[in-house]
Amino acid sequence: MQENYQDRIIALLKEKGETNASLAIGIHKGKATVGRYLSKSSNRTYPSIEEISEIAAYLGVQPHWLAFGIGDKYTDDATINKMSTSGAVTVNVYSRADVAKFIETGEAPIVTQMPVHKEFGDCFGVVYPAQGSISHTWDCAALILQDKNWVNDDIVLARIGNNPTPDFFTLVKVSDTIHVWYGEDTTKNPIHSITEDEIEVLGIVCWGTWAKRR
Question: Where in the numbering of this chain does the HTH cro/C1-type domain appear (predicted)?
Answer without folding.
Answer: 9-66
